[in-house]
Amino acid sequence: MEFRRVMESGPLERAVRSLWGEYQTKPIRHVRHLWRLWQLHREFDLTPPSAEEWTWGFQRGRIPDCFACLDNCCRGPHNTVLLRLVDVALFVDRGWTDMLTWEKPHFSEEVLSRRPMLRDMLRSFHWRIFPVLKQDAMGRCVFLSEEQTCTIHPHRPWVCRTFPYTLDIPGRRIGWSDRCELPVQAAPQDPTARALEQAILHNFYTEKIRDLVLVKVYKEELHKMGITRWLRLD
Ligand code: SF4
Ligand code: SF4
Question: I need a labelling partner for 71 at 20 to 30 A (CA). Which of 40, 59, 77, 216 fits?
Fold first, then answer.
């Protein structure tokens, strides 16, 4: 999945990935990098995850039964898609920026008290600085077809790839979204379950950490690439 996406990526997405490669392979030479990284380490756990070290909030092997589902998780304010940095880069490369918006939904205190993970998302760094996907007047994602399929499936955002698995990085816990009420229990080795585990633990985690590092440490470089036009940086 990751490999295919890299092969099909456009110039801005490749530039973002290459900046991440530079961070991972080259020594940090500038004092400003060191200072910002030190601040970042104080605020966030940047350690790569291992499945065995994290707590699982459900029995491993659980997968969504999307074909039997009469609901669809691609609609409604609770299912607003929050983008990652590479998603924004992909949208710019493909000329889809009209589908991004800063008009984000608001939720009542009553709703937030029942949905702690939603509250966490609204307080997150990502919610502050990244746009979301537009929904139409009926509250459906603009990429959802009449047949209830995703019209950009190979390029769908990261959050769509890993749903309904959720990741609580400070708590080092993998959860199951209460927005998906149709799970089936497969064997832990089931390929779909394994793919979801792989995506949530490595790809999605990396995307979150990559965003943090690049936005905090490489702000000037991102600005030169032109991507900060679609972000809300301080
Ligand atoms: S709510 Fe769950 S089962 Fe239904 S379409 Fe979404 S992920 Fe699939
Ligand atoms: S991008 Fe595709 S998978 Fe994601 S919410 Fe929209 S229609 Fe659903």
Answer: 59
Question: What's the pLDDT tens digit per position in 115-131?
Answer: 887 888 899 889 999 99
Residue 183's pLDDT band (boundaries 50, 70, 90)?
Answer: confident
Ligand nearest to the CA of 82: 2
Average pLDDT over the chain, rounded to an integer = 86
- Any residues with Cβ below 6 Å from ligand 1, and which? 64-66, 69, 71-73, 163-164, 180, 182
Contacts of 101 (CB under 8 A, 6+ apart): 131, 132, 133, 134
pTM: 0.86
Which atom of ligand 1 lies nearest, measured to the CA of 163?
Answer: 7
Residue 26 φ/ψ region, left for φ over 0, alpha for ψ in the -120 to 50 degree band, beta for the rest: beta
Question: What total of structural domains would you count in the chain?
Answer: 1
* Nearest residue to 16 via CA among 200, 199, 228: 228
Residue nearest to atom 5 of ligand 2 (CA): 74
Domain range for residue 103? Answer: 2-230
| Ligand 2: residue whose CA is nearest its atom 1 | 156
What are the residues whose beta carbons fall under 8 Å from the beta carbon of 47, sequence distance 6 or more? none
